[in-house]
Design brief:
Strands 1-2-5-4-3-6 form a 6-stranded mixed beta sheet, with helices on both faces. The radius of gyration is 20 Å and the shape is elongated. The chain contains 6 helices and 6 strands. By secondary structure, it is α+β, with helices and mostly antiparallel strands. It has 2 domains: 2-49; 69-183, no CATH class. The termini are far apart.
Length: 187
Amino acid sequence: MATTVAAVHSKSALDGPSLQDKVKELEGVHVPTRMMYCVRDVLMEDTALDYAEGCKRVQSLLVLFIRGNPTSYIDIEYAADNRFRRAFLSHPDVHLLGETSQSVIGLDGAFLKHKGADNIMLILVGRNGNLENIILAVAICPSEDEVNCAWFMRCCAAAGVDTSYLPVFSDRGSGIIAAATSLGINL
């Protein structure tokens, strides 16, 4: 049932009846709803184990990325159990984008949608001259609190994003506001 595996991996929030309909439509097989929930849960557990294994690979993937993109900036911190605590990655041409883009950036946080991940992704977005959004930097961290947002903003500065003259738009989350205030960034 490759269809079931693909459906669950692409959208972990898929419920039993939706999964049941998809399998019936694509495979022509009727599977009871209760069984679809069990199948989904087993697949999610397998995926969660893959996520734990993937945590061990984060550093090597970032190192490979930086080798191919030497102008990028990465920062990675580990917890006591050798799983990454937080990781940062900037766009390879972030310094060029800053010179040729509109003078405005946006900062936001988003929950990761994975059963095994209780993390937040912080995203810094700029706009180029063609009015297209460009992701300047991303980070995965435990929460959108002041400590993590300040770390993200310091990593952005280390990557070459100068926020001293740029207006920064955000969703006004308490962590972002506190971090911006402590670092002297105007939101």
